[in-house]
Amino acid sequence: MKATIRKAKIEDAPKLAGLMNMAGEGIPAYLWEQMAEPGEDVMAFGARRVAGSESGFSYTNAHVAVCDGAIAGILLGYRLPDPYDTGPLDEIPDIVRPLVEMEALVPGSWYVNAVAVDSAYHGQGVGHMLMVRAEQLADETHSKTLSLIVAEQNAAARRLYEKLDYQDHARRPIVQFPGCPHTGDWILMTKEIKPSS
User: Which ranges carry the N-acetyltransferase domain (predicted)?
Assistant: First the structure.
């Protein structure tokens, strides 16, 4: 299998929304359901949000791995602000508050918000390729650190990150929501990178 990576395009939004929801352990769809119009399809609403340019979940922050013309996986990421201002924490939805608190611990890092591989392409190195691209993007933005958050029960993802030399940095309890696939903690993992120049 030969995969290439390119910047995401606005027309990728429906596929991006599905993969972002997978990477986000169902949190995106849960939040989109709260925001969608009555009767509106949740994933259609999510695609509309992803097609915008105003949020971190925008397609403008995404790269896609493409195999034989099909999107095999996504990387959504960007450099976190430094300093990082969470704003009033009581205005942040309960289920994402622990994530925001941990993002604030690594200001200026290049944050892997979401990485996901379509099930048809599992085990073919797509996730590893996307994580290598994340390091390149971090270097391009002069970030000294990469960061990501993973559920401690997501053993496959944790194995990949540990193999790539990510270290546990902090943890917060997962706030349960309908359909939440995990209990336990969210783990913030970081990796120091050496600049290429």
Answer: 3-194
In a domain, 152, yes or no: yes
pLDDT digits (tens, 9 = 90+) for 1-16: 688 999 999 999 999 9
pLDDT at 8: 98
Amino acid letter, 159: R
For residue 100, give its domain range.
3-192
39: domain CATH number? 3.40.630.30
| Contact status, residue 161 vs residue 149, Cβ threshold 8 Å | no
Long-range pairs for 98-105: beta carbons < 8 A, 24 or more residues apart: 98/172, 98/173, 98/174, 98/175, 98/186, 99/149, 99/172, 99/186, 101/172, 102/149, 102/169, 102/170, 102/172, 102/186, 102/188, 103/147, 103/149, 105/169, 105/170, 105/188
Total domains present in the chain: 1
Going by C-alpha positions, the residue among 147, 160, 53 that lies closest to residue 117 is 160
Q: Supply the pLDDT for residue 173.
A: 97
Cβ atoms of 57 and 76 within 8 Å: the answer is yes
Residue 106: helix, strand or coil by DSSP?
Answer: coil
In a domain, 137, yes or no: yes
Torsion 110-13-33-186 (CA) sign: negative
Q: Which residues of the chain have pLDDT under 50?
A: none
